[in-house]
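step: validate -> pass
step: tokenize input -> pass
step: predict -> running
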Amino acid sequence: MEYHRSRSLFSFIDEERHAKAILSVPNSPTRISMEGPESPWTLSPLQTPSPSLLYHCIASLHRHEGNIYSIAVSKGLVFTGCESNRIRAWRQQDGMERGCLKANCGEVRAILAYGNTLFTTHKDHKIRVWNFTVSDTFRSKKVSSVPKKTPFLLYPIRSNTQKHKDYVSCVAYYHAQGLLYTGSHDKTVKAWRISDQKCVDSFVAHADSVNAILVNQDDGCVFTCSSDGSVKIWRRVYRENSHTLTMTLKFQPSPIYTLALSTSTAFNTCFLYSGSSDGSINFWEREKMCYRFNHGGFLQGHRFAVLCLVAIEKLIFSGSEDTTIRVWRREEGSCFHECLAVLDGHRGPVRCLAVSLEMEKVVMGFLVYSASLDQTFKIWRVKVLPDENVCFDYLDRSDSRTKMDCETSPVLSPSWVERKLQGEDIYSLDHD
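step: predict -> pass
step: emit ->
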């Protein structure tokens, strides 16, 4: 479908209403029925929060298998990991279930997808590697477990010292070198060579739990964040497997739960975002002539902890303990950000997010996948108008901190409120 600049946003609203009618047609051979007593899926009304963005929750599913801890997107599929030992595969466009991968251990804490390969972490502190294919049917096969099992007859007493000693909370994959990085609540980071499932490096990265890890695919830099309130940047030593700390970023003492990296080869820019327990999102910009990161400011809007971040194109999506998802846009060539919308619909903390680019014409389209501790999984369609149609006059350009007064009154689940009032750390609730 062609989109032309002269068309108004209301034409897209009409298209979404038409799409909603198609989705709710009974007995459709290609689409799941989103309404009716026999379907767990529901549709929300269209919402137009700002002149530059349209969003719509196209599907919502209550999960009876417990909370979803992780989401990954690849090859037209969305994978979700939860408290059970099943990793579900859903079709990207409409959320129809395509199949599942069954492990012998549950509590899938992190998922990473690269091509037809899937990496999952489990309660037994191991990482499992899967291959999958998508055609008329979904097929999957477990390739290996990391670390490999030590033959009991060869080493009857010695335990596997390569394995993490606590939950593996995050994973990142460096494509060029075939290295899988894992961060754990045991405060360590490990680098695994996938070709032979060997641990090539292991080091204590932080003074507290490692909550998120990223790899810059352009230069191999590794970014980690922790509940100790710091973000650290690591580099692999040339022609060696060991890693060295190159920089520590610490602007606030609050625990940091999530990271996102936004790079642009066209403009030679690199921005690092971190989400904290105080609800703020700090960001750092890399200097063009070196690898030093300078603090650029912070985004304010969330009322409670920021638990997940995704950066894609010039947009940043943030999920929070306050039950909302915010969509931010960075102005090209500067550090100025604006909040385009607040997506509300969950009744508990938004634990994880994934975003895929749906189209790129005059209007940019995204599919956003969110999971909450209210045990719901939602799919949102977001359409963003070009920058030139947006007025930035209301921004205070003397201050890189940009606010948007989007007041929301989230409807919270009673069980979550009770646990919050008891003073429990929401991020750690799913790690008990």
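step: describe -> The chain has three helices and 29 strands.
step: cleanup -> pass
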